[in-house]
Write a structure and sequence with these properties.
- The protein is α+β, with helices and mostly antiparallel strands.
- The chain is built from two helices and six strands, in the order H-E-H-E-E-E-E-E.
- The chain has one domain.
- Strands 1, 2, 3, 4, 5 and 6 form a six-stranded antiparallel beta sheet that branches.
- The chain is elongated and about 70 Å long.
Length: about 120
């Protein structure tokens, strides 16, 4: 086998590995999207945010990813409805990727309810 064929083979392997990593991240993102609009109830917004964080962390652990959550999020308030956009950094074997997770919190019958509304 000559040098050109060896290089082509190595490039092909690297490409296949990169594609597999992207596909894995896409599947991870799809699983997060499947959680959208599932209500979570709690005594406070902080309690619900902690539950979201735990769910996302457990999902990331299944894929072997590290997840960094921000200390602060973009916030918008409309009456008694709070909208948050979290910039979450997902560290994969192939590098780090940023994902935005949008959540909505509001009072519902005397307790807080929150839900993830979008993942991008």
């Amino acid at each position: 086998m000559n040098r050109k064929q060896t290089t082509r083979k190595q490039t092909s392997r690297r490409h296949a590995k990169a594609v597999k990593g992207r596909e894995s991240l896409i599947i991870f993102k799809k699983e997060l999207k499947s959680l959208t609009f599932e209500p979570t109830y709690g005594g406070s917004m902080k309690e619900i945010a902690t539950r979201f964080t735990t769910i996302i962390q457990q999902l990331a652990d299944r894929y072997g990813y590290d997840v960094e959550f921000p200390e602060r999020a973009q916030t918008e308030i409309d009456g008694e409805t709070y909208y948050f956009v979290y910039l979450v950094k997902v560290k994969t074997k192939g590098g780090a990727r940023n994902m935005y997770i949008e959540a909505q919190y509001f009072l519902y019958e005397g307790s807080w309810m929150g839900m993830i509304t979008n993942v991008r």
